[in-house]
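Consider one such protein record:
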Amino acid sequence: MSVDNTFWEDRYTAAAASSSSVWSLEPNTWIASTIERLKPKTAVDLGAGEGRNALWLASLGWKVVAVDFSPAGLAIGRARGEHRRLEVQWVVADATTWVAPRPVDLVVMAYLQLPHNHFVSALHNSLASLVIGGRLVMIGHDVDNLTQGTGGPQDVSLLNSVEQLRAAVASAGVEIEIVECRQIRRTTADGSVAVDTILVARRR
């Protein structure tokens, strides 16, 4: 199973050529508020893109692996990390098939929008990558964003719901406790509203 990376390769290559950024340089606000009180250990940023969350984790002392299928995106993150003297392991791999070679304490998934069956595979891989007691922290565009929010994919097959996430966790094949799974609304930079789904899950 794999997902074509041409769209993202082109987008990240164009951003690098113009010295711009596809995403903000700061970590996702909800991800940061959820993780900031945890003791830094080992982490994976799955679907890392330009590495904004991975670099933030590294700045806190986490030992981080950033995984993405776009070499161009990871190259941007690597350059930023070198400039800031932050150590991150950058891995080009498909999130739908990659599993951490050694269990980790934290997996972050931020807006990894994939067709549902591919997303479930990535989610299962993330849960399988956790140590006992490890956490998955995930945020993505909710299906209700199509009609009640702004931004994000306009293809319903790339969007999640609370019910889908709960079902995907239940079918993971490992014992998982759902700490939090719900829909949230956030205000975007231009003042509009976006609808997301969040999940915090702990391996038992």
About this structure: Residues 71-84 form the longest helix (14 residues). The two ends are 28 Å apart (CA to CA). Strands lie at 42-46, 63-68, 88-92, 104-110, 130-141, 176-187, 193-203.
